[in-house]
Amino acid sequence: MSIWLIIILLLIILLALYTAVTYNGLVKGKSSVLEAGSAIDAQLKHRNDLIPNLVETVNKFASNEKDVLGDVVKSRDISQATLDSNADLNEKMAASDNLTSALNRLITATEAYPDLKGNVDFDKMMKDLSNTEDKISYTRQMFKSTSNNFNNSLRQFPASIVAQSFKFSPFESLKTEEEKKTAPKANFKA
Predict the structure, then answer these.
(1) What is the model's pTM?
(2) CA distance 107 to 163
(3) Angle at CA 79, nearest 5°, toward 147 and 40?
(4) Apex CA 134: angle with CA 184 and CA 127, to 5°?
(5) What sign does the dihedral 75-121-125-103 (CA atoms) show?
(6) Percentages helix, strand, coil for the chain, rounded to the nearest 5?
(7) What is the chain's Cα-based Rg?
(8) Which tens digit of pLDDT belongs to each residue from 130-165?
(9) How far apart are CA 54 and CA 123, in angstroms?
């Protein structure tokens, strides 16, 4: 066997190994992004599950707030319908942002009701809601980080050649408005 044939075979083997390692890295990166998206969905569903009890409790103490309660219920229903559909993550996040806005209005409205603020169940629900909002924020950041890493790996040479060969496509980044990123917070302890 000639030395050139051996060199060519070694180059082919190295190219095959590089392609396999890069492909597996891209598959792992894609899986991480999809997992992060699923984590967002799980937290959004959990928050949606908290809303009916919260609305019922607020309604007992603050029945004058029918408009605000109606907005929360409507936003929750839209958010749930978006989660149940094949909507993309940005559509889910837009519905979530609307729900967050409605919840912020509800929290502001409930501050005028001392009996509600002193209710143990309401306090527990608000803590759970706040904790869930923090988790939503964390999972959003996790998605942004993993999708940015994946998208960057698709653009880097020579991995970009492998990505194009196997038709990997970048993930769309989340679009959120700055003021809607904050979790609803209220101080119910006087």
Answers:
(1) 0.80
(2) 47
(3) 30
(4) 65
(5) positive
(6) 80, 0, 20
(7) 24
(8) 999 999 999 999 999 999 999 999 999 999 999 999
(9) 10
